[in-house]
User: Which sequence fits this backbone?
């Protein structure tokens, strides 16, 4: 397809769903490509964008078969998810003379230069220490991305940054990350485990909504708030122990987790919103309405006189008093055995994740950290060499 040289602007959705387009010859005076201009032109394999180009709209090239991406030197505006669902991308290069964007250090991504913000990434993108922010929709619907490592230096992950990356199996988030936007990992359906960065204080709206394969969340020591539906529409999570730093559970914070049997809520939690725990979404076909209903066979575990107990009683949800922590009883089964030492060893080898309550029980030498010394003390206790910790 040849676009006439007189054309300077390709309006929104101009060639959307033109499945028979194989190649495009752009005019050399082209200034702007609109939103979804080449949406789902899935046979289009090459893009030879002209140097005159200045702006590219949202989703302009969604669903193309392109392998190599080149951003010309005069482009000064790039919309969100411009190459959404382009699963064949192998390389991304920004013209070195572009003053607004770059692909620094051969990172295979598009970076907004002044802000040090990654605005588009693919399966081969390297997020290095010079990047400070992962932009909104940076990896949105990138189904070819299997693993992402976010380097130290990144402080923000934007809204929908990794949403609907359905094949994303592993995410390594640096502890430098302080804020994460809403829906950041929504519907990452292959993700089974996530470790929160050390400095994150707020788990945002719909943070992990629809990540239904997730069965392990490794908490940090700073989380204070879980926002609405941050943990929602899970299928594999059976138990959940919230961290001792948590203070607030917003409305429907932990919602529609169909296999969830129990949640431990620490005494630190003083604010619990409406239907924050123990509820799921239901649908009435006769009236065509969605409503909340209580989860069956679900228990809140907490402390007497706590906000968790009051919430459970107000909502008619089963409540169980959390067992007292006994030093050395790492698995919290009421006994101190060699199994407790094994839990510590597995924790140190990073094959077992211990919650804050388990870690408190594991700190037998009372020095504020759990090491192999604590496991050794338990073994000595079981062998009768020592009688107390």
Assistant:
């Amino acid at each position: 397809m040849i676009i006439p040289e007189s054309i300077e602007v390709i309006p929104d959705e101009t060639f959307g769903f033109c499945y028979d387009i194989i190649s495009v010859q752009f005019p050399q005076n082209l200034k702007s490509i609109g939103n979804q201009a080449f949406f789902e032109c899935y046979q289009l394999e090459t893009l030879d964008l002209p140097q005159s180009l200045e702006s590219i709209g949202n989703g302009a090239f969604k669903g193309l078969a392109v392998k190599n991406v080149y951003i010309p030197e005069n482009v000064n505006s790039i919309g969100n998810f411009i190459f959404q669902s382009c699963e064949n991308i192998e390389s991304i290069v920004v013209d070195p003379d572009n003053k607004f964007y770059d692909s620094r250090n051969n990172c295979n991504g598009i970076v907004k230069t002044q802000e040090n913000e990654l605005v588009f990434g693919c399966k081969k993108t390297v997020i290095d220490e010079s990047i400070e922010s992962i932009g909104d929709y940076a990896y949105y619907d990138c189904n070819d991305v299997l693993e992402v490592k976010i380097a130290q230096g990144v402080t923000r992950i934007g809204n929908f940054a990794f949403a609907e990356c359905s094949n994303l199996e592993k995410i390594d988030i640096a502890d430098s990350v302080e804020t994460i936007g809403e829906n950041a990992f929504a519907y990452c359906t292959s993700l089974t485990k996530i470790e929160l960065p050390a400095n994150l204080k707020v788990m945002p709206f719909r943070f992990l909504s629809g990540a239904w394969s997730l069965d392990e969340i490794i908490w940090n020591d700073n989380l204070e708030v879980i926002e609405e539906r941050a943990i929602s529409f899970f299928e594999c999570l059976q138990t959940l122990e919230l961290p001792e730093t948590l203070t607030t559970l917003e409305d429907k914070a932990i919602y529609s987790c169909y296999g969830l049997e129990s949640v431990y809520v620490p005494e630190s939690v003083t604010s619990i919103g409406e239907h924050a725990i123990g509820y799921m979404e239901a649908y009435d076909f006769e009236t065509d309405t969605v409503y909340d209903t209580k989860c069956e066979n679900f228990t809140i575990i907490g402390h007497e006189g706590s906000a968790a107990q009051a919430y459970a009683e107000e909502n008619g949800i089963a409540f169980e008093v959390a067992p007292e922590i006994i030093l050395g009883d790492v698995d919290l089964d009421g006994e101190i055995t060699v199994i407790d030492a094994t839990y510590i060893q597995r924790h140190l080898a990073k094959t077992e994740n211990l919650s804050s309550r388990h870690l408190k029980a594991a700190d037998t030498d009372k020095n504020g950290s759990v090491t192999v010394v604590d496991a050794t003390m338990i073994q000595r206790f079981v062998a009768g060499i020592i009688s107390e910790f």
In short: The mean pLDDT is 95. The first helix runs from residue 307 to 315.
